[in-house]
Amino acid sequence: MQIGIIGLPYSGKTTLFQTLTQTHIDHSALQKREVNQSIVKVPDQRLDKLTEMFNPKKKVNATIEFVDLVGVQKSDKAGAMFNSQFISKVKTNDAFLHVVRGFEDETVPHPSITIDVARDIRMLEDEFFLTDLAFLESRFEKLEKDMMKQKNKDDVKKELDAMKEWHSWLESGKPLREKELSADEIKYVKNYQPMTAKPLLIAVNLDESDVKNAENIVNNLKKEFSGTKIRIEPFFAKIELELSSLDDEEKQIFMDEYGLTESPLEKMIRNAYELLGLQSFFTVGEDECRAWTIRKGYTAQDSAGVIHTDFYNKFIRAEVTGYSDFITEGSFAKCKEKGLFRLEGKEYIVKDGDILNIRHG
Predict the structure, then answer these.
(1) What is the pLDDT along the chain (361 residues), one digit of tens a residue?
(2) 28 inside domain
């Protein structure tokens, strides 16, 4: 699963990418408009706890791929401008992480001179709408021509009706990510990848002096920008850069100084993971403790297939224990005694945090 990091110049998106991935990006590469991408571990305290208990040879976190995209520039009309190269890149992303500047810095002026987080969020969102509306209008022309032909007329009409419904939805000011889609519409989304259909995580890049007020800033933004597939989180570029260079003990001392219970960056990664409709189940043992990524709604057999194709094909049963139950009882034996260790069939819907052992032929 891939998340594209987008934002206006000087918003801090490349700094966010570098902190996420603990990599340094050559700025000459940026000037050539290269795409920078990296796999990032999803922090999970549950996996950490299981690793402490089993002391395995290896610990494997779930992962997400982040891509730092170049191409958004402010236009003379006080709007963002997506070039065709940028659009072709972002269409392959499963979601967007929009970095918005919320800090003052006289040495690096904002493209719009003033700092206004809500304005900048609207700026890119408006461009998403315009891009989708332009696509739909061009699609109308093609579908209407296809209607003149005899082949597959019913399929063409079905799609044309759906595109018109999308157009009306967008014209009313609502992004496609908030529309309940039919099975046919889900297929069209996969085929055409509309911009407003992508889940959106907004990272507000604040100054370190705003740590204590960050919750109020974000809550005010949530009143204007809300939805089931949009999340807003604070981000502190200077703090995160400092944290990335410290060991665990120093990191905790540093966070305590700012009154942070956890790294906002780690919380953001988890939010990105959940925003994509993903969750984790665990396999544990002396050799390895691992978090496996699955989509919400996966069955035990689907989940077994994530581990290995043979596990899917030769699935018999899944031994299942909930994470909380296991931690409370302290062992599989005690979970069995209390009926918290279950055998489930292939149709069992795996829950976030389930510990699975797959029985297979």
Answers:
(1) 889 999 888 898 888 888 887 765 555 554 454 567 888 899 899 999 999 999 999 999 999 898 887 656 655 444 446 777 778 888 889 999 999 999 988 888 888 889 999 999 999 999 999 999 999 999 998 888 888 876 678 888 899 999 999 999 999 999 999 999 999 999 999 999 999 999 999 999 999 889 889 999 999 999 999 888 999 999 888 888 888 778 888 888 988 888 888 777 888 888 888 888 999 999 999 999 999 999 999 999 999 999 999 999 999 999 999 999 999 999 999 999 999 999 999 999 999 999 999 999 8
(2) yes
In a domain, 314, yes or no: yes
Coil, helix or strand at residue 306: helix
> Can you tell me whether residue 351 is helix, strand or coil?
coil
**Per the domain annotation, does 287 fall within a domain?**
no
Q: Where are the alpha helices (DSSP H) in the chain?
A: 13-21, 27-31, 45-54, 84-90, 117-147, 153-171, 183-192, 214-224, 237-243, 248-258, 264-275, 300-307, 309-313, 323-329, 332-337
CATH number of the CATH domain containing 144: 1.10.150.300
Q: Model's pTM, two decimal places?
A: 0.84
- DSSP type of residue 144: H
Instruction: Select from 18, 64, 15, 58 the least CA-distant residue to 41.
Output: 64
Residue 12 lies in a domain: yes
Q: Round to whole Å and give the CA distance between 162 and 143.
A: 11
Q: Report how far residue 48's alpha carbon sits from residue 60's, in angstroms, rounded to the nearest whole number.
A: 10
Alpha helices (H) in 60-116, listed in sequence order: 84-90
Cβ distance 230 to 198 under 8 Å?
no
Q: Supply the CATH number for residue 29's domain.
A: 3.40.50.300
